[in-house]
Write a structure and sequence with these properties.
The chain has helices at residues 16-27, 65-78, 120-129, 144-147, and strands spanning 3-11, 31-35, 38-41, 52-61, 93-99, 104-105, 110-111, 134-135, 138-139, 152-155. The relative contact order is 0.23. 25% of the residues lie in helices and 29% in strands. The N and C termini lie far apart (30 Å). The chain contains four helices and ten strands. The longest helix has 14 residues, at 65-78. It is an alpha+beta fold. It has a single domain, classed as 7,8-Dihydro-6-hydroxymethylpterin-pyrophosphokinase HPPK (Alpha-Beta Plaits, 2-Layer Sandwich), CATH 3.30.70. Bound molecules: 7,8-dihydro-7,7-dimethyl-6-hydroxypterin. 7,8-dihydro-7,7-dimethyl-6-hydroxypterin (ROI) binds at residues 10, 41-45, 52, 54, 87, 93, 121. 7,8-dihydro-7,7-dimethyl-6-hydroxypterin binds next to strand 4.
């Protein structure tokens, strides 16, 4: 069955824009993709690290959650993923944010992703893709964080395909 999933992308090491472009290309092998605008975002966590580039991809896929997670982790490794410390800088992060309407909790996966509601760099790009997206009955667009977002648009939704 085709399921609509949302994947969070983040990078603050290396040529982040190129790394995210290549990630979108790989995600496109798993189904059909739409991308949010590309954002620059101050680090959540230790402040002595570079700003992040963030985006969200909407992926309609036939893959089940765990095989999808395997692919995301493979793509992170392919990008030469380096992660220097907890809450610290990384080459590429691919987070499975939402998978259809499923609630998943096991050793490998919590879906919807635990951090969605307090991360402007996730919520704002999600709204690019689906302005009326809801999570546990709440419209993301009504969250206070949407008004207080501290993000800079780097490029519009054509950034990954141009
Ligand atoms: N901060 C920002 N702004 N963007 C991220 O993608 C991001 N990813 C992380 C932590 C370290 C929590 N901080 C982040 O994993």
């Amino acid at each position: 069955m085709m399921v609509r999933s949302y994947i969070g992308l983040g990078s603050n090491l290396g040529d982040s824009e190129q790394i995210l472009r290549e990630a979108v290309e790989k995600l496109a092998t798993l189904g059909s993709v739409q991308v949010s605008s590309l954002y620059q975002s101050p680090p959540m966590g230790p402040q002595d690290q570079p700003h992040y580039l963030n985006a969200v991809v909407r992926l309609d896929t036939m893959l089940e959650p765990l095989p999808l997670l395997d692919q995301l982790q493979q793509f992170e490794q392919d990008a030469g993923r380096v992660r220097l410390r907890r809450w610290g800088e990384r080459t590429l992060d691919l987070d499975l944010l939402i998978y259809g309407h499923e609630q998943i909790q096991n050793e490998r996966l919590t879906v919807p992703h635990i951090g969605i509601l307090d991360r402007d760099f996730v919520i704002i790009p999600l709204l690019d893709l689906d302005a009326h997206l809801q999570l546990n009955g709440h419209s993301l667009k009504d969250l206070e964080l949407v008004q207080q977002a501290n993000l800079t648009v780097i490029a519009d939704q054509s950034w990954a395909t141009a």
